[in-house]
Amino acid sequence: MASNRIEGKKRAVLSILATALMVLFAIFAMVPFAFMFMSSLKPGAEMMRYGLTLKFDPGISSFQNYTALNTYRDGVYWHWYKSSAIIMVMQTAIGLFFSSLVGYGLAMYQFKGRNLVFSLVLIVMMLPFEILLLPMYQLMISMKLMNTYFGAVVPYLVPPFMIFFFRQYCLGIPKELMEAGRIDGCTDYGIFWRIMVPILIPAFGAMTILSCMNSWNNLLWPLIVMQDEKKFTIPIGMGTTITPYGNAYDVLMPGAVMAVVPIIVIYLFAQKTFIAGLTAGSVKG
Q: How many angstroms separate the CA atoms of 211 and 269, rounded?
């Protein structure tokens, strides 16, 4: 009994320490957002004078900078917002569709060259994207996809990391489910859509958040493909507010705050499936 009480106390102490550590990490993670939000409420001249601070002055702080987003260069900020949203939805939806099919096929089916295909996926995953910039740029020109939303999505239609993730997830699914589906008269596509997709929901949730984050924050490829200012994504557009002739901090800070909102909303809706997807397979039995 005494040993059980000691073990219980140790577990309680460790739980408290772990919670305190996580709270500390959370505070450190939130500090940059606090600086950004407080700066978004101040005139740009104040930030130029004092830099990023958490000091709140009711006399100069207001939400006027957020209304300035509507008038900045004829409301071009919301065109950037729309472009980022369109590219994010296209990239995430198409990437999830193809990657789940490929990952499922590599995990659940035996066919000649399967290991070779998976090896190629791993090789592509290890290649830096910068190596592919020139051939991809030439491909976009030949396909006349420059300055189009689809052109910004093409390199991410079948992301190798998603294929790897779905394959590893599907390896933990019993193949007896496929046999049961065939006995019930399902085709291979029917087995995938009716049986496997509901099981893969945690994986879809995890990859949805990661894909949305990668797309929303992507700068390099959209910067190369997009030429029309109104088709710029938020990272590109925010970069244009800082020039050698002047910095529009009145737009930069509130624009950065607004840019964080979609990712937070997506995570709040998909956090349960995100956590379940990332921890799948960590506990056996």
A: 15
112 in a structural domain: yes
Using CA atoms, how far apart are residues 83 and 74, in angstroms rounded to an integer? Answer: 16
Within a 10 A sphere around the Cβ of 233, how many other Cβ atoms?
29
- Rounded CA-CA distance 228/216 in Å is 18
- Answer whether residue 285 is part of any domain: no
- Per residue in 127-162, pLDDT (tens digit) is 888 888 999 999 999 999 999 999 999 999 999 999
- CB 233 within 8 Å of CB 212: no
109 and 58 in a common domain: no
Tell me: do 160 and 214 sit in the same domain: yes
Domain boundaries, position 112: 72-279
User: For 4-31, what is each residue's pLDDT tens digit?
Assistant: 677 777 888 888 898 999 999 988 888 8
- pLDDT (tens digit, 9 = 90+) per residue, 66-82? 888 888 888 899 999 99
Average pLDDT, the chain: 86
Residue type, 184: D
Tell me which of 279 and 189 has the higher pLDDT.
Answer: 189
Q: Which CATH number is 247's domain given?
A: 1.10.3720.10
Number of domains present in the structure of the chain? 2
Residues 130 and 257 in one domain: yes
Record the pTM. Answer: 0.85
State whether 139 and 271 are in the same domain. yes
Q: Do the Cβ atoms of 65 and 40 come closer than 8 Å?
A: yes
